[in-house]
């Protein structure tokens, strides 16, 4: 395939839950889905997942895996915290043209396309971004220990924190808190033991209950959702969002903040144009064009 870098490109959208890979060919797009690919929490497994996915892509497209070396590859991956990680991942993949970034960039391009606007990415974790005149600025995305404000895991942790304060007599209870405490038999030790091994997704299980309770007026639910909405507003302001500028929400929790945001922001919420894999494909296309220009 002498012109592979001109007509073929590969995109990878790798997250902690699943990894999606797509191969753009002259006749269309072939895609596959694999398991987790977080290069921070499990580097070797992530690389193995991507390599296996690339082999499956080749099989579906009728290519020899040895042809991968000449196909430009773009990957937006969870856990790419710096350039050293990106370079290490690139060296571990079977392409001599590999561009590796964290997964936020592809999410923005997939959701907004070329439009100017802001993005609130709120699922189990969270980040915010703003695209203007082709430039993208980010806030957040720092993980569950020091960040992920307003996210599903953050709401779950907030509920359990509130439950402990109620048991200590420092806060008033609510129906939401009592429901949570019942699961742990009102036992501090059971809650603490849960937190020892709990992952972000385990905390995120409580997010739908927080959202529903808040919408029915539960004081604890409202406190948590209003705190998350306040963080979103501050982040949008820090990003320089203009009044009436569209705000795109992605992730399973983002849309639920509409009832808790100021009317102007809520009225500016728009649906995403596409998914992160769509954004990764566009960035892969741009990367392939860049390589072609550098080679001519």
Name some characteristics of this structure:
296 residues; alpha/beta; Nucleotidyltransferase, domain 5; 2 domains; 5-stranded mixed sheet; 12 helices; 10 strands; 46% helix; disordered N terminus
Describe it.
With about 300 residues, the protein is of the alpha/beta class. The protein folds into 2 domains: about 5-110 and about 275-295, ATPase, nucleotide binding domain (Nucleotidyltransferase, domain 5, 2-Layer Sandwich); about 115-270, Nucleotidyltransferase, domain 5 (2-Layer Sandwich). Helices cover about 45% and strands about 20% of the residues. The chain contains 12 helices and 10 strands. It has helices at about 5, 45-60, 85-90, 105-110, 150-165, 175-185, 190-195, 200-205, 205-215, 220-240, 265, 275-295; strands spanning about 10-15, 20-25, 30-35, 75, 100, 115-120, 125-130, 135-140, 245-250, 270. The chain has a 5-stranded mixed β-sheet, with helices on both faces. Strands 8-7-6-9-10 form a 5-stranded mixed β-sheet, with helices on both faces. α4 crosses α12. The longest helix is centred in the last third of the chain and has 20 residues, at about 220-240. It is globular, with a radius of gyration of 21 Å. It starts with a helix and ends with a helix. Residues about 1-5 have low confidence and may be disordered.
